[in-house]
Design goal:
about 75% helix, mainly alpha, about 130 residues
Amino acid sequence: MKIYSKEHQKALELKKNMDQIEKEHITFLNNAEKMLTKMNTTLKRNNFDKFFDNIEKDFNKKEDEAYAKYYNHMHRTLSITKDSPTFLNKKYKDGFTDEKYINDMFKLKTKQKKAQHEHKQVKRKTR
């Protein structure tokens, strides 16, 4: 996979960070489910529920912050137009956060910059 710019690299890193947080969250949920099935008394369950709720809030907060960083970065660096590939396309399994979508968007941005630069060069030569 070709990296087209520092912004592209940063978008991929933000995506990787979101995936890591999600993976940790799923692992926590799986472990919590196993622990919950082993508990017998309601007193232990009440304490566990409080503990679980606090950690769940933390994970949700981390996921929201990571997505907000990714979203802001993508919209700040890319000018999404009608010609841009839409993330609703079936080839993007994860939609807006799909790695293929990120690569396609930055590839398109690079092509647009190159075409704009060539247009400026032609304009200069005709003067």
